[in-house]
Design goal:
Layout: H1 8-32, H2 58-68, E1 81-86, E2 91-98, E3 117-120, E4 130-136, E5 139-140, E6 144-145, E7 159-164, E8 169-181, H3 187-191, E9 197-209, E10 214-228
Parallel strand pairs: 2-3, 4-9
Antiparallel strand pairs: 1-2, 1-7, 3-4, 5-6, 7-8, 8-10, 9-10
């Protein structure tokens, strides 16, 4: 009469193996939970970070801009930007107009919409004379890398396309990309008047502070108007 005793050792080994695998799996999960879920955002190269010119007085800038102006790169009338495209880093994003946040700084989209960008609508529109400023998140705990995660990978010469509500697309050529400590944010270079249309793209970057859950630096790309697409 057959018995089950002969099968017991094999069954016991399988049970023990299953328990070991489950334990090993839990251990891996526990270790991985302490690791970053994605790499830190790219840091601009030293070659890309030539400092932008500081803002210059409005009257002198207008005169200089008039002398340098050409029909192909004449400023555009004001129109709200609606979309952004940066082929070099794979960005295709909607742009929404925002003003100031509760702290008095330029507002950014909610973290619940990490793939949107915002236009600082108290400043010039893209293609209009002066610096247009677009902002976006670098990452989000919910999704990982966000719309401007690769902003630090841009290099001078690469193109940025901003389509506006009037169906015209302003094209900008990157001139510099740099990382600045948050406490030394170059407000004058970002928001200061420029005679020609210009563009600034702003996001977080550098080291992440685990205690405050904030990045300590800001990545900024500066771009000059190149005309219409």
């Amino acid at each position: 009469m057959p018995t089950t005793k002969a099968a017991d050792p094999g069954g016991s080994r399988l049970i023990m193996l299953a328990i070991w695998l489950i334990g090993a799996g839990l251990l891996v999960i526990g270790v991985n939970a302490q690791l970053p879920r994605w790499a830190p955002p790219p840091v601009p190269s030293a070659a890309a970070a030539s400092p932008p010119r500081a803002a210059i007085p409005r009257a002198r800038a207008l005169a200089a801009g008039h002398r340098r102006g050409s029909p192909g790169t004449a400023p555009l009338p004001r129109s709200v930007p609606v979309s952004l495209r940066i082929p070099a880093i794979g960005v295709r994003a909607r742009v929404i107009p925002l003003g100031l946040d509760a702290g008095g700084g330029a507002a950014v989209p909610s973290l619940s919409t990490p793939f949107l960008t915002s236009w600082y609508d108290r400043g010039p529109a893209p293609g209009e004379a002066g610096p247009a400023v677009l902002l976006g998140h670098v990452d989000s705990a919910a999704v990982g890398p966000a719309v401007f995660y690769k902003l630090g990978d841009l290099v001078p010469g690469e193109l940025v396309y901003v389509t506006r509500r009037d169906h015209r697309t302003a094209v900008f050529r990157v001139t510099a990309v740099a990382l600045y400590p948050e406490q030394d944010f170059p407000a004058k270079q970002v928001y200061g008047f420029t005679a020609r249309p210009s563009l600034r793209l702003v996001t977080c970057g550098g080291d992440f502070d685990e205690q405050t859950h904030r990045y300590l630096d800001r990545t900024i790309a500066f771009a000059a108007y190149a005309g219409e697409s």
